[in-house]
Amino acid sequence: MFGWYILGNHWEKQERRNKMPENSLNQKLSDINSNIDGAIASCFVGYDGLVIEKVGRENGLDIDFISAIFASVIKSLKNQENEISELMATFQKDVVFIRVMEDGFICIVMGQDGNIGRAKLETKRLGKKFME
Fold first, then answer.
1. What is the pLDDT of residue 82?
2. Is it the case that residue 17 has pLDDT exceeding 70?
3. In a domain, 62, yes or no
């Protein structure tokens, strides 16, 4: 990836070298995505419905829209004093798995052949907090 930077008195095009820290949200999501067979995209979403970090590609599903809908559902269930830990929805081509965390939730979009058991295991390993 390239960007324009001021060097001295002029602009110069240089390669960006934005390395994310090893424990960054992006790295955690990338690890989750690569460890789950059939995973298309993963994201971390705040309870306000806004996607904080996303990796992978969209495969017909609008991940931002789906995340906002799930945020509303999770918020409603939490207001009912129900302890919810995970949700899953099946669409025509995709499966969405949600792991509820203390500071938001992880949303994993998989193809119909996605490994749901592995998604549960990978997200459970993170514990209750994701943004540490």
1. 67
2. no
3. yes
Could you tell me the end-to-end alpha-carbon distance of the chain, in angstroms, rounded to an integer? 28
Which CATH number characterizes residue 87's domain? 3.30.450.30
Residue range 48-83, pLDDT digits in tens? 999 999 999 877 788 899 999 999 999 888 777 668
Whether 87 and 81 have beta carbons less than 8 Å apart is answered as no
Q: Which residue range forms the structural domain that includes residue 107?
A: 21-124
- Count of domains forming the chain: 1
Q: CA 131 to CA 47: how far, in whole Å?
A: 13
- Would 11 be classed as within a structural domain? no
In a domain, 7, yes or no: no
Tokens of 130: 């994701």
pTM over 0.90: no
Strand-by-strand arrangement of the 86-90 sheet = 51-56, 39-45, 105-111, 94-100, 86-90
